[in-house]
Design goal:
Number of strands: 7
Number of helices: 10
Largest sheet: 5 strands, parallel
Distance between the termini: 46 Å
Shape: globular
Strand order of the largest sheet: 3-2-1-6-7
Number of domains: 1
CATH class: Alpha Beta
Order of helices and strands: EHHHHHHEHEEEHEHEH
CATH superfamily: HAD superfamily/HAD-like
CATH architecture: 3-Layer(aba) Sandwich
Strand content: 15-25%
Helix content: 40-55%
Length: about 220
């Protein structure tokens, strides 16, 4: 039987959230924090369960990306992948990816994060498959909405089954409720198994968001 190993990304292969970090990189420090202030009403409505997660995420994407040129966005996604993942990856995570590749398993990154920068990182890792959230593009511009579902929870498993109908999920790696269905479907689930991170990760995280490490080029 053909086999696939599915890896969540944020908090599993990385020790911090790459989605928020990409927003920081794309916008620059000042605009990033101003946009978060603009989003306080949406965050509040979500916290009160008046709007659902996908609606809140679309609000966030609209604030950060509506009307942005797609080619510029893709270029920034490539820059980000090259710059950020060398800082935020987990060593044991990449070792697990390599281990599955070495024994002939297909490997897929399966994430609610954005496919555009994940695809560049996956290529660097020799990973051919990325199942992730995508942004809608019309006439070369981002609309600020998701194109399709937010890739989390049951959607992760549905998308794996859709793209790999004849594969056994031989292993799955995750760290949150959003990975539950994928983990339950795997022959061998690994929940929060990957834990390596920099000794000074708190300082590094602060530098990423408040310092100059994630300033766009």
């Amino acid at each position: 039987m053909k086999t696939i190993a599915a890896f969540d990304v944020d908090g599993t292969l990385t020790w911090t959230d790459s989605f928020m970090l990409f927003l920081r990189y794309y916008s620059g420090r000042t605009k990033f924090f101003l946009n978060l202030i603009r989003l306080i009403p949406s965050f509040t409505l979500y916290g009160l369960k008046i709007i659902d997660r996908d609606t809140a995420k679309n609000h966030l994407l609209t604030v950060f990306f509506a009307g942005e040129d797609f080619e510029h966005y893709r270029a920034k996604a490539q820059e980000f992948a090259k710059k950020a993942y060398s800082i935020i990856y987990r060593k044991d995570g990449l070792a697990a990816v390599s281990g599955h590749q070495n024994i002939g398993d297909e490997v897929a990154l399966v994430s609610a994060s954005l496919a555009d920068y994940l695809e560049f990182w996956a290529a660097d890792l020799g990973v051919k498959h990325v199942i992730a959230t995508r942004l809608e593009v019309k006439e070369g511009k981002l609309t600020g909405k998701m194109d399709g579902p937010n890739c989390r929870a049951e959607i992760k498993l549905q998308e794996i089954r859709k793209h790999f109908p004849d594969y056994e999920i031989v292993a799955a790696y995750g760290d949150s409720r959003g990975d539950k269905e994928m983990l339950e479907a795997a022959k061998t689930p690994f929940y929060r198994k990957l834990v390596s991170e920099p000794r000074f990760s708190k300082k590094t995280r602060n530098d990423l968001y408040f310092g100059n490490l994630m300033e766009g080029e």
